[in-house]
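Tutorial handout. Part one gives the primary structure; part two gives the three-dimensional structure as tokens.
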Amino acid sequence: MTSKLTLTKRRTFLTATAAIAGAQFTGPFIIKARGETPVKIGFIDPITGSLSALAVTEVESAKWTVEQLNKKGGILGREVQLLVEDSANDTGTGVQKAHKLIERDKVDVIMGDVNSGIAYAIMGVTAEKKVFHVVPGGHTDPITGKDCKWNVFRTCNTTAMDAAAVTGELVKKFGKKWFFITPDYAYGKTLQENFVKNLKKAGGTFEGDMLPIANADFSATLIKAKAYKPDVLLNNMGGAAQLNCMKQFVQFGMAKEMALGGALYELETLRSVPKEALTGWWVFEWWWNQPNVPAVKTFVDAISPAIGNKKPTARHWMAYVSIMAIKLAAEKAKSLEAVKMAHALSDMELPPEVSLSPNKVRYRAGDHQLMSDIFVGEVQQAGAGGPDDLFKVETVVKGEDAAGSAEDTGCKINWPA
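Part two.
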């Protein structure tokens, strides 16, 4: 017997996949190339599972970006082919798909995964196979930290960068007594560690729970949080789990009892939460409303018609920058050889029409982490900019300032002989 929950999940998945032009995920989604020797980019992301909304957005942007590239000559004058595989939010599946894309489909580049644990596992495959690998949206620190690889570059922030950018604002505005609700996997663990480190420096105290990445019932944890009476509840969950937590937070009448805050509260989630949960101070890794950066408006105006006339999210930006960085690396290296591309991209400053940010942005040579701007501000009910105007930027923190030195991350890049 099919449950109402199963039917709801199925309808949600069908709606999400329709947003990327009906792509079929039983096999790879391919943009057919006109040339005989296409540049193949394999993209592994959790199209199904609790992080699917974020993954679908990334794939949607990757598809659009590849289409734009192919209209302008592709990469190295060759058509670009995008092959998408569903990791299903499962590490073993993600690794399996990486082997398939590299060994059977002969891709030139790998991208992925939203799930930090899967991205981390895929790194082992791409490093062994010497394949250029860009992580658009997996945040756990070791990827560009102690376990960094010569062939791996990351576009989204580390959890250390996000925590460093927002901790001071949360302490200053609300107080030093915090309660964490954190997903129990690679991303959540490193994020909470970094928050705790910064909070302790400020003299703060905390309690919290670590819960499964796809957790749906937060009642016991929220009761525990109410009893603790924190100044701030930090909801570090992601995707559907963060949405469910926010809904239950409102149902429990906690919106008037404590502040909300944390690292990522993404536009995909903001569009679905109750209006009472549109509050608190958070981090956005990119924001569509940057009036002083002309290239941003150009990008927003170009991509919006292709994504249902909505504003692009940080996930759109992550995938766009990742693919454009692949193009820039290949064309600087005049090659698709991974080692040559990796050397070419190291310390390359991205042009404004790629970075879409107010400050200089580069993939730092010391750890291959993108030194991107971090947007700290307050979530709000829809403003004058329309239904997607749900965030008010208060300050932009330079990636270099939030990241610390490459040496401090523990990264030591070992290049092939």
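Part three, for discussion. DSSP finds 14 helices and twelve strands in the chain. The longest helix spans residues 52-71.
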